[in-house]
Amino acid sequence: MERGPPTDPSATEDGDSSGSVPGRTRGLLEAADVAWFRATAAGSIVAANDAFTRLTGYTPTDLRERSLDALFDDATLESLLANAECDSPTSEPVSIRTKTDRVPCTVHLERRSRDDTDGEPSITGIVRRRDVTARSAVGSESDLTYGRTFEALADALPDGIIVLDTNSDVQYANPAVERILGYDPDELVGSSKVKIIPERLRQTHLSALQRYLETGERHINWTYVELPGQHTDGHEVPLGVSLNDFTYDGDRYFVGLFRDISPRKEAERTLTEKVVQLESVSYLGRHALESTDIDDLLGKASDLVAAALDAQYAAVFEHEGAAPDGEALRLRAGAGFETPDGATASVTDSIAAATLAGEGPVVIEDFESDERFDGPSLSDDRDVRSGITVTIGPATDPWGVLDVYDTRTREFADHDVDFLESVATILATAIERQGYERRLNETVAELEASNERLEQFAYAASHDLQEPLRMVSSYLRLIEDRYAEDLDADGREFIDYAVDGAQRMREMIDGLLEFSRIDSQGDPFEPVDLDAVLEDVLTDLQMMIDQSDAEIAVDPLPEIRGDASQLRQLFQNLLSNAIEYSGDGSPRVRVAAERTGGEWEISVADDGIGIDPDDQDRVFQVFQRLHSREEYDGTGIGLAICRRIVERHGGRIRVDSEPGEGTTFTFTIPAAGSR
Question: CA–CA separation, 193 vs 230, rounded Å?
Fold first, then answer.
């Protein structure tokens, strides 16, 4: 039996048998010098290739809408299709009326119930000239014509084509089969198809074929399915396969069209690897931000690296440049092995040595054939064949190295190295941040201890100074009482100066003592109604308000959590300053509150003498006065106390002022738990 082609000569490599020939197949027909046309169900030509126009001598415009009956000399379209079933081909000898002559041809016609181009019924045809000297072979002319057409197409296709009989024996194989699977087509014909099927799938194939022959049941999608093929050298090749069956000369055959999809599979695998690696980097980055446990982070990084790269081992080593025995790597975390924590490995002649020397990532595809290094950083008894090592931290001062190893020879991709470097960057950042946090915590602890010592000193000094100061004041008063008549005007003036100085010193000591107690002896925080606090303050300042004819405007204030006595002192210091530094006119003071996000902003504004911008930082420092005592009373510690009180309550205080335009002190208090 001659090799039989599939039923539809216009079938494309993707299994389409619609009857409308795609551009690629038209090109193959043209290359094979095969004339082709498409007509309506009534026989009006709607499309034809160049080979058909050359055969007939008519231009495409002349052929369009021309009836096939006008071209057929000794037959009609109806007579040619009389015995053909819908969607089944027929081949008949016919003479074609060309523009200048009549040409004996064989026409292969196929009537389609639905065309892919417009969805309407159509007729497709392939036309070949007949050799009139071979009349004795008329009975097989259509078969030979169609067979040559099929082989011309099949030989030109880059995809493999195999035709099988019902025993799975190969009846035809095109040249592309050898390129894809390595089998010579001539040697493959007559053998069983199962030789190109992996052994693990052969019985499945035979059982499915038998079931289909008996029941017509298909267990896979014949239009397109992905299956492995067996190459002659033993490896499997991923194939995209389209299947169909046809009947020829009373026998049933199967045709398979397949292509090597290895590039697509490799691209999909690479894409999947990149996605996994990106997700791993994202997860590790989030974990690094949330966790302060570096050992836990290093352990997770080792596990993620080994899993994402499908490697046997992963390890994180810390570089100890000043170890007793020279440079060494101390194991901090690992995956895939049981080496105890703290184990060390020599740096000499290892991958890590080259990496730490600033040579960048080191990639080894096969340790046995690579003569650069003695071995990996892992212990020598591991069956390591390949690996990558990157530094953790800057190349000029690396913290350590991140290793990944496999027990097979392996070609690592660029994105594998990029992934490992991304993980190393996350680890380096987390380690650096931990160092910053540790140093910051140490600094904060030192500052807290220093502040505590200063507070203790201030309290002790101010307390211990009280007694001698009282003694000085007492003796000065005794001298004034007993010897006032014996003193001249200068003597009495000197005693007045001494008494006044002692009084100011007492006030400063009291202020310093009060300043030192703000943090150490403050009351626990509790709900405080600031309206009630301010009302008490205004009561205490009533005499000062009356004497200065001050006007105090107060907006509603919130209830917050705080130390009521300290908040009372805060308002008293700010209001007394606003009244005292009012200048020549009557003081006008306004107290207001505004909610801003998660805190309250409370302001005390006056229209007094103002503060020079250059002095606004000084006013919150201890014993810093902007005016002489002859101009204004005070110790210079009141606003420093205000700042300490505000800071103890978790807020900030600032001053906004210009000379002669008044002053506004604004402090913030957290709104949590407030109303």
Answer: 10
Burial (CB < 10 A; 0-12, 13-18, 19+), residue 104, is: middle
Cα 467 to Cα 465: distance, rounded to the nearest angstrom: 6
pLDDT at 3: 36
Residue 608's CB is within 10 A of a number of other CB atoms, namely 23
Over the stretch 176-217, which tens digit does the pLDDT of each residue have? 999 999 999 888 888 887 888 999 888 888 888 888 888 888
* Residues 33-48: tens digit of each pLDDT: 788 898 998 889 998 8
- What is the torsional sign of CA 349, 355, 357, 360? positive
Collapsing DSSP to helix, strand or coil, 589 comes out as strand
Q: Is the pTM of this model over 0.85?
A: no
Q: Cβ-count burial of 214 within 10 angstroms (0-12 exposed, 13-18 middle, 19+ buried)? A: exposed
Helices 414-483 and 262-290: crossing angle in degrees, nearest 10, is 10
Residue among 246, 226, 247 at smallest CA distance from 238: 226
Q: What percent of the chain has pLDDT over 70?
A: 76
* Three-class SS state of 130: coil
Half-sphere exposure of 172 (CA within 13 A, CB side): 21
H or E element that contains 500 = helix 489-520
Which residues, 6+ apart, have CB-to-CB distance to 38 below 8 Å?
Answer: 19, 20, 21, 45, 46, 47, 48, 115, 117, 122, 123, 124, 125
